[in-house]
């Protein structure tokens, strides 16, 4: 049972039993959350107060299903939709070296037209047939055409380069996760790959990309032995090959699960003079303290992510390379398929709280993932199964999509505020934007909605007392909660069909749209707003126009 309950197996593999998943998520859901706040809170907000920079680190990059899926029209439609609400700049996916992409085949030579007509014609003597960039070019062209740069995860191992061709990860597409059988061939492939990208897109463009070596080598995505030492060997070869193409190319790692290895990794790079331009790691809100911190404490789901981010941030600061930028290239509220979490309005307050806590600790965080065009557990069987994406199958927006759209409205300067349930920001044009949320743990366990919304707890009343703005300023209020921007209530009313009809899909898309905004005015500089449990509200003062 232990291997079934490993984080990687639960998150990515279809082989754990449903009973095991429910038992595990039940234990997590019953964990004590943060101290329940008062049902009312008064916030003193000075719009002219000294601010700190608040770059939108949570929406600069997203994860997605594996590389080949980016050629699908549904993937690209979802890409456009998320780009429109966040303006995100880069996307990360696994398996650019997967055999289905077709990069590496040392046994295949191009068949020239002359050979087709004359069997005695000489075959080419160089290595032009080893590398085929056809699909890679289509993948990266498609991203760049949408204004998105790739965050290039260098994985997984081509079968004909693998030290053990039979050692496959249980993902539906069965990636090989072993070291290369010959590092000279691996180095040549990395060099050819990087050279091709520079030749096709130019060094000025590719120097803005990030190259991340592998994915989660500390768990079952890497079968080198011993795991850390063999991964460091892979990293050394890869980083040196990339820098040989151009020192302007950016490379980093260790891309670990559970916020692991970063201090050891940076010490290794420093001691061995290995280039590293950024450190990367991953964490999920239902990772355990035992896995992340090697302690037996119980860390609530709304606190785990930023506790882990701070851990890695502090490890970098204490390392021999303390100025190394930190990128969390995967995070989410769950690594399992929990419909009561990633499909639900729970994501609004969870995301807002995570943003508030992680501010200042990392350059970027990549939400996993932007779309449910995703096949790690196999072909999607129903639109709402607890997928990681912001958009469900058939282009249906989830509550998380609306949460990202709302939080995009925040300014890029943070105003100090003594609250763990509110954010105050200012835009460059002086517009004041606040986020208010009422956190409550997920309903029920897994796919079971055993706890009705009424039992989530009380609504929370925020009284805003504002200075530095007109005392009767107009306010626009955006909402996400059980009755606003929540497609799940409509899906439930349909009986949760596994395969909705075309008419039902149209209705679900409409139900998933953001709710129309409310409008109010300050009264003598004050405004009172009520937020239901698991609700999020964004208040815009001074400029009613939403950001694009």
UniProtKB/TrEMBL annotation:
<dbReference type="Pfam" id="PF01229">
    <property type="entry name" value="Glyco_hydro_39"/>
</dbReference>
<dbReference type="GO" id="GO:0005975">
    <property type="term" value="P:carbohydrate metabolic process"/>
</dbReference>
<dbReference type="InterPro" id="IPR049165">
    <property type="entry name" value="GH39_as"/>
</dbReference>
<comment type="similarity">
    <text>Belongs to the glycosyl hydrolase 39 family.</text>
</comment>
<protein>
    <submittedName>
        <fullName>Xylan 1,4-beta-xylosidase</fullName>
    </submittedName>
</protein>
<feature type="active site" description="Proton donor">
    <location>
        <position position="216"/>
    </location>
</feature>
<keyword id="KW-0326">Glycosidase</keyword>
<feature type="domain" description="Glycosyl hydrolases family 39 N-terminal catalytic">
    <location>
        <begin position="43"/>
        <end position="513"/>
    </location>
</feature>
<keyword id="KW-0378">Hydrolase</keyword>
<dbReference type="GO" id="GO:0004553">
    <property type="term" value="F:hydrolase activity, hydrolyzing O-glycosyl compounds"/>
</dbReference>
<dbReference type="InterPro" id="IPR049166">
    <property type="entry name" value="GH39_cat"/>
</dbReference>
<dbReference type="InterPro" id="IPR000514">
    <property type="entry name" value="Glyco_hydro_39"/>
</dbReference>
<feature type="signal peptide">
    <location>
        <begin position="1"/>
        <end position="35"/>
    </location>
</feature>
<dbReference type="InterPro" id="IPR017853">
    <property type="entry name" value="GH"/>
</dbReference>
<dbReference type="InterPro" id="IPR051923">
    <property type="entry name" value="Glycosyl_Hydrolase_39"/>
</dbReference>
<keyword id="KW-0732">Signal</keyword>
């Amino acid at each position: 049972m232990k291997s079934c309950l490993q984080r990687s197996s639960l998150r990515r593999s279809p082989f754990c039993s449903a009973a095991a998943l429910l038992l595990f998520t039940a234990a997590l859901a019953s964990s004590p959350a943060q101290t329940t706040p008062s049902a009312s809170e008064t916030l003193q907000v000075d719009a002219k107060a000294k601010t700190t920079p608040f770059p939108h680190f949570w929406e600069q990059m997203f994860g997605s299903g594996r590389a080949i899926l980016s050629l699908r029209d549904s993937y690209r439609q979802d890409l456009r939709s998320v780009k429109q609400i966040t303006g995100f700049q880069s996307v990360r996916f696994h398996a650019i070296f997967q055999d289905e992409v077709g990069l590496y085949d040392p046994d295949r030579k191009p068949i020239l037209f002359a050979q087709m007509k004359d069997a005695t014609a000489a075959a080419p003597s160089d290595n032009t047939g080893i590398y085929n960039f056809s699909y890679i070019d289509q993948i990266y062209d498609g991203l760049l055409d949408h204004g998105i740069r790739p965050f290039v995860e260098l994985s997984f191992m081509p079968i004909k380069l693998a030290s053990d061709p039979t050692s496959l990860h249980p993902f539906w597409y069965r990636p090989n996760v072993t070291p290369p059988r010959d590092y000279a061939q691996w180095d040549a492939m990395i060099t050819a790959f990087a050279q091709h990208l520079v030749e096709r897109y130019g060094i000025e463009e590719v120097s803005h990309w990030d190259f991340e070596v592998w994915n989660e080598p500390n768990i079952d995505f890497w079968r080198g032995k011993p795991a850390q030492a063999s991964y460091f060997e892979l990293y050394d070869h890869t980083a040196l090959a990339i820098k040989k193409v151009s020192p302007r190319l950016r490379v980093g790692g260790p891309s670990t699960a559970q916020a692991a290895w970063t201090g050891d990794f940076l010490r290794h790079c420093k001691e061995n003079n290995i280039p590293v331009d950024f450190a990367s790691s991953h964490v999920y809100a239902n990772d355990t303290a035992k896995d992340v911190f090697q302690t037996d404490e119980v860390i609530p789901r709304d606190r785990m992510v930023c506790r882990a981010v701070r851990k890695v941030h502090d490890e970098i600061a204490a390392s021999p390379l303390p100025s190394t930028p930190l990128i969390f290239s995967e995070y989410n509220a769950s690594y399992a398929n929990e419909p009561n979490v990633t499909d639900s309005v729970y994501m609004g307050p969870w995301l807002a709280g995570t943003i508030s806590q992680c501010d200042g600790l990392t350059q970027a965080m990549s939400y996993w993932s932007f779309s449910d065009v995703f096949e790690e557990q196999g072909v999607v069987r129903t639109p709402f199964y607890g997928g990681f994406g912001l958009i469900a199958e058939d282009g249906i927006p989830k509550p998380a999509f609306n949460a990202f759209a709302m939080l995009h409205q925040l300014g890029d300067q943070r105003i100090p505020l003594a609250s763990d349930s509110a954010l105050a920001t200012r835009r460059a044009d002086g517009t004041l934007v606040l986020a208010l949320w009422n956190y409550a743990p997920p309903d029920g366990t897994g796919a079971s909605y055993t706890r009705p919304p009424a039992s989530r707890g009380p609504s929370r009343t925020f009284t805003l007392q504002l200075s530095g703005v007109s005392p009767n300023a107009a306010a626009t209020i955006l909402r996400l909660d059980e009755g606003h921007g929540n497609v799940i209530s409509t899906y439930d009313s349909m009986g949760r069909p596994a395969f909705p009809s075309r008419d039902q899909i149209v209705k679900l898309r409409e139900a998933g749209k953001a709710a129309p905004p409310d409008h109010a005015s300050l009264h003598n500089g004050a405004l009172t707003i009520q937020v239901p449990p698991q609700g999020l509200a964004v208040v815009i003062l001074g400029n009613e126009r939403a950001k694009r």
